[in-house]
């Protein structure tokens, strides 16, 4: 059964030569369509941004303090993006991450929580933030996986509700972190590296291991590539989908702790538009929005590209409006490029595709390199079987 490729091969494993989609000249998709080529492209893009920054603002951009500033800014959204990567690879979407960061930060900085932290240890604030994020993620997972609500709608509702609850708890006021032990620990820089950057690195390494070296990661690729094939292979699709959203909530809780330390506050305004930044970083990093393919390394590079671009704009005194336009253009170009590479073609044949393109077939035909059967169109990999619906993916037309 062709769906087994999604279960055992991983999304970025190169497809066998006989399954690779030919281009217009009858050749394979080429190096750039593979995972190594995509990562190389991201490294080149980041390098070009650094060159532009060094040329346009030579003294300020290459300053070590500016480099550390880029890493600190990237750390918070980077942690959220790791959780977002798992959700999107699994075929979902989470628009509530920014609001969950705000809610977690507010709940962890209430007078009651800080009083408990003062009596016991500041770790209480950390556990509170992570527990709130995980709890909200659990609600998302239940509604999407078992309530069969479309992920976009469910997480959009959570975005509004969590932000409103944060405002109610904080009474629309900014709450100050009083615990010096908490601030001293998270704002330190052991070995000259900010603690926030170390946390991001640890989360990224943990995410890479979880995605690439565990059964959980293989199931994530399988569910995102073809939910019906995953179900037939014995994977509990609904249960796994729920765990993905809990994982996303946990990363939001960790990010809230980092943001509390960086700003010394808990606020209902924290994390505003962070969901867009996280999704943009994940997409730029090469993760397919339809699920079934993605890498943690690509997401880390995507975050660095996004934050470095903002830094170059700021150093050159460009307005925030110009930044927003440039970021939007980059996101669109990244999606178009990843679709072209996923198709494994030299041209733009995917623009006229309906249902399935010439590079893949829902009945087990050839697929693009690195793409599980059915991951592009969502069709079933079993000949004659109906297309499998992922929880939260909406009805199949």
Which features characterize this protein?
397 residues, mainly alpha, two-stranded antiparallel ribbon, 16 helices, 1% strand, disordered N terminus
Q: Could you describe the 3D structure shown?
A:
- There is one protein chain.
- This protein is mostly helical and 397 residues long.
- The protein has a single domain, classed as ABC transporter involved in vitamin B12 uptake, BtuC (Orthogonal Bundle).
- It contains 16 helices and two strands.
- Strands 1-2 form a two-stranded antiparallel sheet.
- The longest helix is centred in the middle third of the chain and has 27 residues.
- It is globular and about 55 Å long.
- It holds the Pfam family BPD_transp_2.
- Keywords: Cell membrane, Membrane, Transmembrane, Transmembrane helix.
- GO terms for molecular function: transmembrane transporter activity.
- It is found in: Cell membrane.
């Amino acid at each position: 059964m062709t769906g087994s490729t999604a279960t055992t091969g991983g999304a970025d494993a190169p497809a066998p030569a006989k399954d690779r989609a030919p281009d217009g000249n009858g050749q394979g998709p080429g190096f750039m369509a593979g995972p190594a080529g995509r990562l190389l492209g991201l490294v080149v893009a980041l390098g070009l941004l650094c060159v532009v920054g060094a040329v346009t603002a030579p003294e300020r951009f290459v300053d070590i303090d500016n480099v550390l500033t880029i890493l600190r800014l990237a750390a918070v959204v980077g942690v959220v993006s790791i959780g977002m990567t798992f959700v999107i690879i699994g075929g979902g979407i989470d628009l509530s991450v920014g609001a969950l960061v705000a809610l977690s930060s507010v709940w962890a900085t209430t007078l009651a929580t800080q009083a408990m932290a003062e009596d016991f240890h500041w770790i209480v604030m950390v556990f509170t933030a992570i527990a709130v994020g995980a709890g909200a993620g659990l609600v998302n997972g239940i509604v999407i996986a078992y309530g069969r609500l479309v992920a976009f709608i469910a997480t959009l509702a959570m975005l509004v509700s969590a932000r409103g609850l944060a405002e109610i708890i904080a009474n629309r006021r900014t709450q100050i972190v009083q615990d010096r032990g908490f601030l001293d620990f998270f704002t330190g820089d052991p070995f000259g590296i900010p603690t926030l950057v170390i946390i991001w690195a640890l989360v990224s390494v943990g995410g890479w291991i979880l995605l690439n070296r565990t059964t959980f990661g293989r199931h994530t690729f399988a569910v995102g590539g073809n939910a019906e094939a995953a179900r037939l292979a014995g994977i509990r699709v609904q249960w796994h989908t729920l765990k993905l959203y809990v994982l996303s909530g946990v990363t939001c809780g960790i990010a809230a702790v980092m943001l509390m330390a960086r700003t010394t506050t808990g606020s209902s305004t924290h994390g505003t538009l962070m969901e867009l930044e996280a999704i943009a970083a994940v997409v730029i990093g090469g993760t397919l929005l339809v699920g079934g393919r993605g890498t943690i390394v690509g997401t880390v590079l995507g975050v660095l590209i996004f934050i470095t671009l903002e830094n170059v704009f700021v150093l050159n005194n460009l307005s925030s409006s110009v930044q927003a336009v440039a970021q939007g253009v980059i996101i669109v170009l990244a999606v178009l490029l990843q679709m072209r590479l996923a198709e494994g073609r030299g041209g733009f044949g995917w623009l006229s595709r309906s249902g399935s393109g010439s590079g893949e077939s829902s009945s087990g035909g050839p697929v693009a390199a690195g793409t599980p059967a059915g991951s592009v169109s969502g069709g079933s990999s079993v000949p004659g079987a109906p297309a499998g619906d992922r929880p939260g993916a909406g009805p199949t037309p």
